[in-house]
DNA sequence: ATTGCTTCCTGAGCGC
DNA sequence: TGCGCTCAGGAAGCAA
């Protein structure tokens, strides 16, 4: 499931492969996957920049256009692959030099929004802070947690609090910070908040350096898998490194994994 | 204001 | 072999 490190990995791949290419067409093979919301009809233009906000991929062109892509759970962007080789091809971007980019998405939740440049600002204004921003510090998180009765796990998953975390990384962060995902947010102590901040940056940095986590579907732009799944400590595990059994519980509709001995 | 449930969707894995 | 059930989950939308 693409979270910040996987999206960052894809963005880096896209930047290398797509920068400077001219978009000839964008084909939607499924109703609702590609949505052109621009104020007027015009060419897509040449790709001049690719970046990321939270889990959203943003592709800028010189035609006053920003292409916003969200992979959701099973979306993949694969460069230079014939559409017929992709099992669940939902959309395709064709370039004037005959190369292409395939949007493959088994569960069809992913979306490609074609926008007037700048209008993504408003659309993404609900997003919270980026984990690598200077402002992501104890003071920021303390403010967000104070008075909140929901479990810490739920708050960390909230994109309007921190942009980019998903189920896997939130659980890895809490395990490294030695905090149970069940803890009430307002009860988390200052030094524990500091641990969460530190481990968030650390886990994300490590995961990006390993090209993200592939559990089942995630692929890089060259269709290779990530490697961080080898370094997970709780997600999907049966035993903690301390030999205790990892517990599984449902929180906000998602499975949480945690070690009742290491995490308090 | 905050919280939590349902919905979208398909394929894998399991029991019978 | 094949059927039906459960599970995986990001974010929107809605209800309490």
Write structural notes for this entry:
The protein has 264 residues and is an alpha+beta fold. The strands form three sheets. It has a five-stranded mixed beta sheet with strand order 2-9-5-4-3, with helices on one face. Strand 7 (89-95) and strand 8 form a beta hairpin. The protein contains six helices and eleven strands. The model has no long low-confidence stretch (mean pLDDT 92). The chain binds a DNA duplex (16 and 16 nucleotides) through residues 1-3, 55, 70-74, 88, 105-109, 147-150, 154, 157, 159, 166-167, 215-216, 252-255.
Give a brief rundown of this model.
The protein is an alpha+beta fold and 264 residues long. It has six helices and eleven strands.
Which spans of ≥5 residues are poorly predicted at pLDDT below 50?
Answer: none
- Using only C-alpha atoms, the radius of gyration works out to 19 Å
Average pLDDT confidence is 92
Give helix % range.
10-25%
Shape: globular
* N-to-C SSE string, H for helix and E for strand: HEEEEEEEEEHHHHHEE
């Amino acid at each position: 499931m693409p979270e910040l490190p996987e999206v960052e990995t894809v963005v880096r791949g896209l930047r290398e492969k797509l920068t400077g290419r001219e978009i000839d067409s964008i084909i939607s093979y499924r109703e609702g996957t590609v949505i052109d919301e621009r104020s007027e009809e015009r060419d897509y233009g040449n790709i001049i920049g690719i970046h990321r906000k939270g889990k959203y991929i943003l592709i800028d062109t010189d035609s006053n256009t920003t292409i916003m892509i969200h992979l959701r759970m099973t979306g993949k962007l694969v460069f230079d692959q014939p559409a017929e080789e992709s099992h669940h091809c939902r959309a395709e971007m064709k370039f004037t030099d005959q190369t292409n980019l395939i949007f493959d998405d088994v569960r069809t939740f992913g979306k490609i929004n074609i926008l007037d440049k700048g209008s993504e600002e408003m659309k993404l204004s609900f997003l919270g802070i980026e984990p690598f921003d200077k402002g992501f510090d104890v003071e920021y998180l303390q403010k967000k947690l104070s008075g909140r009765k929901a479990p810490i796990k739920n708050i960390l998953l909230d994109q309007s609090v921190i942009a980019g975390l998903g189920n896997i990384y939130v659980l890895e962060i809490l395990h490294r910070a030695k905090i149970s995902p069940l803890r009430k947010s307002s009860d988390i102590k200052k030094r524990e908040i500091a641990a969460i901040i530190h481990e968030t940056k650390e886990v994300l940095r490590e995961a990006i350096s390993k090209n993200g986590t592939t559990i089942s579907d995630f692929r890089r732009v060259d269709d290779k898998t990530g490697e961080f799944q080898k370094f997970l400590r709780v997600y999907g595990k049966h035993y903690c490194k301390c030999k205790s059994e990892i517990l599984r519980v449902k929180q906000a509709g998602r499975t949480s994994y945690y070690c009742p001995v290491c995490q308090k």
